[in-house]
Design brief:
The protein is an all-alpha fold and 90 residues long. The protein has helices spanning 2-23, 28-50, 56-85.
């Protein structure tokens, strides 16, 4: 179940990036939702990564958690970039 949640959060993060690329910008309401999802995903990834043991099944879970953490940090960084350099999207 944990892997499913991590996979879905990763797909949601990727969907926001695709939305930005296709629409050539960010709708002002979309950036707030994206920030909440990015922070939630970061928290879920860190909790999942810290709660794993040395089981083989948990190593696959760690890869999902690390990929979600990476995508979440990139998302948060991009949101900060938008806030600083393109504030008219807010």
């Amino acid at each position: 179940m944990n892997r499913v949640i991590l996979t879905l959060l990763t797909l949601i993060q990727c969907m926001f990036f695709v939305n930005v690329l296709l629409n050539e910008g960010v709708i002002f309401f979309n950036i707030y939702i994206w920030a909440v999802v990015a922070l939630t995903s970061l928290m879920a990834g860190v909790i999942s990564f810290n709660s794993s043991s040395s089981n083989i099944d948990d190593s696959a879970n760690n890869y999902f958690a690390l990929s979600l953490i990476t995508i979440s940090i990139v998302s948060i960084g991009y949101i900060i970039y938008l806030v600083i350099f393109k504030p008219f999207y807010l």
